[in-house]
Amino acid sequence: MTSVQARATGALEVRGLEAGYGKIQVLWGIDLDVAEGEFVAIIGANGAGKTTLLRTLSGLIAPRGGSVSAFGRPLRGLSAARVVRSGVGHVPEGRQLFPLMSVRENLDAGADYLPAARARAGRNRAFVYELFPRLLERERQLAGTLSGGERQMVAIGRALMSDPRLLLVDEPSLGLAPALSASVFAALEQINADGVSVVLVEQNVHQSLKLADHAVVLETGEVVLRGTGSELLSHPRVREAYLSL
Amino acid sequence: MSASTRTRRTRPAQFPWDLVGLVLLAVAVAFAPDLLKALFGRASVSYLSIATNALSLSILALSWDVLARTGQLSLAHAAFYGAGAYTTALLARHADVPLWIGIPLGGLAAVVFALLLGAATLRLRGIYFAIATLSAAEVLKAVVHHLPTGIAGGNAGMNVPTLFRPEFIAGQMERWEVAFLRNEAYFYVYATLLCMTVLASILVQRSRLKHAFTAIRTNEEVAGVMGVRPARLKLLAFVLSSVFVGMLGGVEAHRVGSVLPEQSFSVSTTVLALVTPIFGGLYTTLGPIVGALGLSSVQEGLRRVFSDGYLIGYGVVLVLSILFMPRGVVGLVGGLLRRRGKREAGR
User: Which chain A residue is nearest to residue B10, measuring alpha carbons?
Assistant: First the structure.
């Protein structure tokens, strides 16, 4: 099996990352590399530490040990507001939109507080609307009145407005009908094709491994398997534990 | 039409109701004293005083609301008010600082205290934040109590010179007109301070700060991943909120003619600061002002009908309004107007 660590450099480099909440340690020495333009999936059961890993990468949780750097710049100790300025966008779990703001306002909020992203807001908004034409139709609708799929589109769109070079996406298909989740995955593929590196945390193992260049399997806060998407799709342990085959 | 060309279209510019409202407010207060005098004659002296109290409550409420927009339900308003009042009074007593400098310095003292308090309470949330901010006024009150009497007057407080002393000119005016002139001058000072507070609130609402404050209030983590710096903006809100209430404290020290620890750091100042925007409508410029005018009118009306027992009626009005108008007067009226608009559009 090819080691992700051996091949990849560039967008993200994580070494021995440890993190947790209060007295509970969740991540135990995670190593992860994402090359520029690469699509990496992180899979694992509930409670494996997937969301904690993304939250630590984006500066929402302070790591207890190890190192993180994005595009050669160390991120450890930086606040979320500074991490996003380093080109790392985060689509949080559960969409987390502002329900009383319109679709357009939610999208623009992704760029408004980042001078560099503000300068490219027109181009990025056009890309978001090209990706999700439905959002253009509902531009002035309040986000709280959208369907689950549309909210996910806005959440991804808002992160894209921050002009990221690396996008961290947390459970985008959660609670979506299969057709809608397929369109969300198609959008992520297109975002990646546009040159943005993607780290996807998903419980929809089949879809995410099909898309991923590389993937890691997390169990109780440790990486237990690594490989290319297709390698892991055919790995007996993955097939048994996550694909019920 | 491609998405890129369609997104270039400009959204219809919204009519600047807020700025028009500010101009109307300025015009209304400019003519109010003369109008009251023409309509009510001698009684206009007390009406002007009541109107000045309503302006004072508006400043208190609107300045509190600016901070509340970041989700920080502060109970420190009495502390900022008292810091402003005592700074102005101390400068007048010990340094003979001109009053027009003493009042802005009162605002500045409130800002310095707010920055210290804001930095110390940044990580606190909910009830812990509320308790910490509530104790701020008590701490300042204790400090003032225990300072040597020669400095801050201790428990007995200090006298503060009045800002205006109009003189009676025999043959040209009646006796009551002296009081009218004094009240009119104070009314204009309060009105100017209110217009400044309204302008600051409008500028916040029209800038990127509006959504940043909303983001911090509703979901601080998401605000962070959007690039908003919550700590910095919370401190900015503390500054914007405290400067006006600090100056209000300074002006009121001159108007009342004294500062007392119990009065300047009174919990009732904090309670009024938060009850009024809740009654009028939170997180807006209009809501706290509507709340202040509404509550002042209700209070005055009840006082005239029930005299001593009016506070019971006042309490009932507050409880009913919180039960039946959870989004305040502005939210209720806005909802009714929107429903009516939809009905008419459906016809």
Answer: A122
Alpha carbons within 13 angstroms on the beta-carbon side of residue B247 total 21
Which domains are delineated in chain B?
Answer: 16-278 (1.10.3470)
- Tokens 């709280």 -> residue: A144
B22-26, B42-46, B121-125: range with lowest mean pLDDT: B121-125
B3–A126 CB contact, under 8 Å: yes
B305 confidence band (pLDDT: 50, 70, 90): confident
Tell me chain B's radius of gyration from C-alpha atoms: 22
Q: Which two tokens stand for residue B120?
A: 């110390």
- Choose the mutation target among A58, A98, A124 for the interface with B, i.e. most B CBs under 10 Å: A98
Q: Which amino acid is at B243?
A: V
Contacts of A109 in chain B (CB under 8 A): 211, 215, 226
- pLDDT, one tens digit per residue, over A186-228 is 999 999 999 999 999 998 899 999 999 999 999 999 999 999 9
The two three-digit tokens of residue B223, written as one number = 């605000």
pLDDT exceeds 90 at position B81 = yes
**Stretch B148-155: mean pLDDT, rounded?**
91
The span from the CA of B293 to the CA of A17, in Å, is 57
Contact A101 B214 (CB under 8 A): yes
Q: Given B6, B219, B224, which is nearest A136 (Cβ)? A: B6
Nearest CB to A98: which of B2, B6, B214?
A: B214
The answer to whether the beta carbons of residues A111 and A117 sit under 8 Å apart is yes
ipTM given for this complex = 0.88
Range B322-327, long-range pairs (CB < 8 A, 24+ positions): B322/B278, B322/B279, B325/B279, B327/B281, B327/B282
Which residues from A are below 8 Å from B when comparing CB atoms?
Answer: 58-60, 79-81, 83-85, 89-90, 92, 96, 98, 100-101, 104-105, 109-110, 112-114, 117, 122, 125-126, 129-130, 133, 136, 140, 158-159, 162
Q: Does domain A1-86+214-245 have CATH number 3.40.50.300?
A: yes
Using DSSP, how many helices (H) and how many strands (E) does chain B show? 16, 2
pLDDT number for residue B215: 94
Token look-up 């099909």 returns A210
Q: Are B219 and A113 in contact (CB < 8 Å)?
A: no
pTM, two decimal places? 0.90
Amino acid B8: pLDDT = 41
Query: Which sequence spans correspond to the domains of chain A?
Result: 1-86+214-245
Tell me the three state secondary structure of residue A58: coil
